[in-house]
Amino acid sequence: MSGFAFGGGFGVPVFVRELLAQARRTRTYALQTVFLGLLVLALIPLWPASSAASGAAIADQGRLIFEWGGYLQVLLLTLLAPAVTANAIVEEKEKNTLDLLLLTSAGPFAIVWGKFFSRLFGLAFLLFLSLPILFALLTLGGIGSDAILVEFVILIAYSILGAGLGIFLSTILPGVTQALITGYVLLSALLAAPAIAIGLGFWQTRAGTFPLLAAELSPLYDVVYLFQTSKFVATESFPRSWWVAPLWTSVAGLALVMLSGAVLPLAHRIERALSLRRFLDAFDRVVFLLLRFRWRALLRLLRQRPLESDDAAPVEHRHVGTQNPIYWMETCVNTIGRNRYWWRVNLALLVALLASYLLFHALLPDSLADVTLHRYMVATLTGILVLLSTVIAATTVSREREDGTLVLMASTPLDCRTYVQGKVRGIARNIVFLSALPFIHAAIWILAGVIHPLTFVYLLVSIPFAVVAQITQGIFVSLMQPTTPRAIIAALILISFQAVLPFVCCLPTFNLPLTSYYLVEPASGLGSLQQIAGAQGNYLAVLFVALLFSAGTQVGYTLVVYSLIRSGFDRYIGRAY
Amino acid sequence: MIETRYLSKVYNDLVALDKLSLTIDRGDIYGFIGPNGAGKTTTIKILATLLRPTSGQAFVCGYSVNGEAKQIRRKIGYVPDEFGIYEDMTVLEYLEFFAALYELGLAERKRVIRDVLELTDLSYKENAQVDSLSRGMRQRLALARVLLHDPEVLLLDEPASGLDPRARIEIRELLKELRNMGKTILISSHILSELRELCNKVGIIEKGKLLFSGPIEEILEQVRAHDVIQVQVREAPEQARQLLIDHDLVKRAEVLSEDGWLEVQIDDAAEDHSFVPALLVEHRFRLLRVREQEIDLEDAFMKVTKGVVG
Ligand SMILES: Nc1ncnc2c1ncn2[C@@H]1O[C@H](COP(=O)(O)OP(=O)(O)OP(=O)(O)O)[C@@H](O)[C@H]1O
Ligand SMILES: [Mg+2]
């Protein structure tokens, strides 16, 4: 049985084929460069200047670099593992080569193992590449080679989980984008699970300490455990149970690959069962029943079978009219615009937002009256907004290219302005409700007298510009990248880069969640603004300048990106001139 | 309407087009024939301003592709060799979308869409989803799309590939209608028989080189074997053969079939073949028919690409 489960020699033929295909791709090398580059870039500011005095200070610095390098590698793996695996099986399904592969003597397990190991090999190779940097740290002192090895094991085990999860999602989900996003959500949830549990008060801990369970559960916390051992178990100086997280993550990763092999022959059926449409259809029915409870309608709905109702839906013609045709396409036909259920998803988000108040009220009774919580909330909401607007924009053009419709547009007189304007307006309109969530939240708590009314002014000025800037940037990335996964990855790298900008230079405006965090003000007075302005400073003037600066940089950035788009527009959409 | 001068396209080190010069006049239906990888798509893409030539010039409607691409896009309708898929869009919406891209006014749009749907026989499908159409219907829809802005030139890349015979005939009839509307059409294909009826000019291309370009009769004339004729006599073909073979100007004579057909090869010294029927009649053979050897585009294509004709 186990021989069968591992397939023909762990899927060596598939592995070799995949590996060769990867070696031929420039993407592989680009990824390695980006990975190392980011690692080095992030660590440079921490590297001790040669003039630094005491050896102990240098050793501390070495330890700090190593620690932050570890966090960064966990985050980069979170970004990369789904990215390199999401298309593994989806690609075969889309090209209809899966059935051919299954017919060969290799069998489903050989396929998934081959794909898994080739991906894992790539990730492990990245980790190996970073080893020299880490060993260079040994020269600074402060850490031992055993810590480096432990960290390495944690990271490798996490890669196994990431790659295994990616392969599994690629097997059961219908599209690369879905597999990618689900992968990101699940891995981030795993990493952040302890923080959420502690934040919501499920785990009671003394301030500044963590339960050991956190390190056993989340690889990120396991790295924390490695460096700040005493915060987990006061009596330990070197983590004794560091191995729990690596053990379960690697086992879980391998189990997921095994599971993928088992369900691979059913991939197409699972894919259909899991399709978004079905889910939204079901959601739609529930909402419909809740909103307009009528017996006859209920009976009719119950009698209908899901697919039939779809076919029988009356055709309503969506006129282009005098609209910008690209805007029409984006709002009536494309991804989200096409989705008749989108407003219901928005409704669900609103309900979730309101429900979260109840949750906070139940778990942490005083937190709702504290501005800190609202800072987190607004930062989270704007973070989701930034992420979604970029990702939605990043998929829009490459999708057209993959469908072969871009070339049709390229042969028409369509110009850059119409195109970009239509896209930006269309995407903005699709996420308009999402953009409204921070406002809704702020409005509620301004009325409740917890946050300052000026917060609303801040949101009013910063969010629209930031959203337009993000969308424009996403379109730019999408125009430049030939495929959807590449566009998504490029957009995420760009966002990550912008997110760290405030830490390396004075460009906080490019990190909307961060600025939101600081500029949500308590109703009792202007807290952080007052700090910035100093005791006697005029904080209204500071606010004004900050808003102007924020809006100005976003507008400037949008214009720069737009001019970049315009200068290469014809080339990007496949025209010669 | 279309003119290329020494048009070349090089991909890395592969010469896809080699100094292609051709002229297509207003109202021509130009059949572009060549085996796979000959450079047909490359040429059409250059003319549709989607690909930049490595060297050389091309003009469409008097505009150069180098620098006047915008004007060209308004004058041409381009059907690529692949049909782009739009999910969840009806035929009517598809056409409206492209009409809007071509900046047609609302009233005009409505009229034009009705016209092209009627022309392409798709009116009854106007509410169908585009991705549910059959291949033949998709091709007709693609033609409907490029007719929206009433272009002068149509660039069609293998519009009939992958279609069943019936759908091919439908497309051919449609193209004939367009010909009657006075459009200039460049159509690439490797199904030669359908070009014969449709086109008045053909170009034969292989490995990026234009081997022949001109009126269809001309190429047929060129490859036609002038020195071979066929005659049919009422009876005694064997005697007729004997008689012909003894003639000085006859190189070869064979009986082709039971019903009296003979094939006669004439010496180059003969002025024409008129002496053959004369001779037979003189010897009281009852002559039924005289014909030159049948030759079609397929043979011409084979001969030209084999280098028989320069
Ligand atoms: N983007 C490209 N990069 C490199 N080579 C290319 C590219 N596009 C086409 N070619 C090459 O140029 C040559 C001409 O290709 P083209 O597509 O024009 O042929 P075609 O006549 O349209 O063939 P078919 O009948 O198969 O459609 C081929 O050898 C092809 O391999
Ligand atoms: Mg072609």
* Average residue-wise pLDDT of chain A: 79
Distance between the termini of chain A: 60 Å
Helix content of chain A: over 70%
**Helix-strand topology string of chain A:** HHHHHHHHHHHHHHHHHHHHHHHHHHHH
Explain how this protein is built.
- The complex is a heterodimer of chains A (577) and B (310).
- Chain A is mostly helical.
- Chain A folds into 3 domains: 12-274; 276-317, no CATH class; 325-572, no CATH class.
- Helices cover 76% and strands 0% of the residues of chain A.
- Chain A contains 28 helices and no strands.
- The longest helix of chain A is centred in the last third of the chain and has 35 residues, at 539-573.
- Chain A starts with a helix and ends with a helix.
- Residues 1-8 and 304-314 of chain A have low confidence and may be disordered.
- The longest helix of chain B has 16 residues, at 165-180.
- A 6-stranded mixed beta sheet of chain B has the order 6-7-8-3-9-10, with helices on both faces. A 4-stranded antiparallel beta sheet of chain B has the order 2-1-4-5, with helices on one face.
- Chain B folds into 2 domains: 2-222, P-loop containing nucleotide triphosphate hydrolases (Rossmann fold); 226-294, Alpha-Beta Plaits, CATH 3.30.70.
- Chain B is an alpha/beta fold and 310 residues long.
- The two termini of chain B are 26 Å apart.
- In chain B, α3 (91-101) crosses α4 (106-119) and α4 (106-119) packs antiparallel against α5 (135-147).
- Classes of the chains: A mainly alpha (577), B alpha/beta (310).
- The interface between A and B is medium-sized, with 31 and 38 residues.
- The complex binds adenosine-5'-triphosphate (ATP) and magnesium ion (MG).
- Residues 11, 14, 16, 34, 36-42, 81 of chain B line the site of adenosine-5'-triphosphate (ATP).
